[in-house]
Amino acid sequence: MKLTGLKVVDLSVFLPGPYLTMVLADHGAEVIKVEPPGEGDPGRAIGPADGPSTVFFRNVNRGKRSVVLDLKSPQGREALLALCAEADVFVETFRPGVVKRLGVDYEAVRARNPGIVYCAISAFGQTGPYAGMPAHDLATEALAGSIGITLGRDDAPAIPGIPAADMLASLHALSGVLMALLRRQQTGRGDYIDVSMHESVLASMPNVLGPALAENRHANPKHERSMGGSAFYQVYETADHRHVVLGGQEIKFVRTLLGKLGRLDLVPLCEAGPGPHQAPLIAYLREVFLTRSQAEWVEWFRPLDVCFAPVKTLPEALSDEHALARGMILTDAAGRRHVAPAIRFRDEPPEPRLREPALGEHTGAVLSGRPAT
To answer: In the CATH scheme, what is the code of domain 233-318?
Structure first.
């Protein structure tokens, strides 16, 4: 696998850091998950369980080795630094200042290993007025403005269905770690990576920041291209109280659908771009979609070259024929389902180990230097 031989020391908990290090593990890295005594990673106790741990925990910690260390003790701190001396990557998600107090900050780790790539993921980054504020995904999205453009039908801000700040920060961190490792091949030196969830969200809205950057105004979601101002980028209810979406605004798609419906006279509304002038077309399509069930619309659209999709439930998404054909759902020996790695290589594909570690399971083996099996 691409990352075989890479050694990662992982102090992270919850979601952004653990997902990053799981991706590394899926592609061959040895990931040593260092957990505190007692309950370990809080993710072990979040949500439903279908085995020895919660689905949340196993979804981001498969294939790792768990070591329990008390970093508040000199012995625990020294054991961690000894692990870092032989590691390539170090990941932590504490609030800024915590690793310094524990004696495992970048300077302390770099003193043992100048080549280490040290990645810190936090809510707001290591500096700035918000650096010390407590926050999880939702608060960072709110401050980045993305919640302010995610509105429900009542025009009130809505909670997104995915943890965007967590996952975006994780993926930015993954990119940073891989870039730093690539650069280390030329210089022999590691680096310090400061990834902010807040900044990851800000950096991930290039298509919706136009009004703010160019005109210093807040976007009106009902009038913007990808937030409700276009009839062909919209959610519609069906006769059975389910929903479908139109997700492509190119005029060729508009002409195809409106031609099939016998309403080419409405095409100019889309040719004029998104905005309130499309309201009559949106109203018309709402009425049309209420005339058939979701399943009937799926069949009706099948021969058409139009960006259309049914809104599926999560169980339906996990049993979707395309996801299954692509091998996105894996099953372990105990019959539990897992989501496969999304990064695919033709050569050296990932080989995820579909087992999460018990708390402290590998403490003795890792500290005594025994290799992973």
So the answer is: 3.30.1540.10
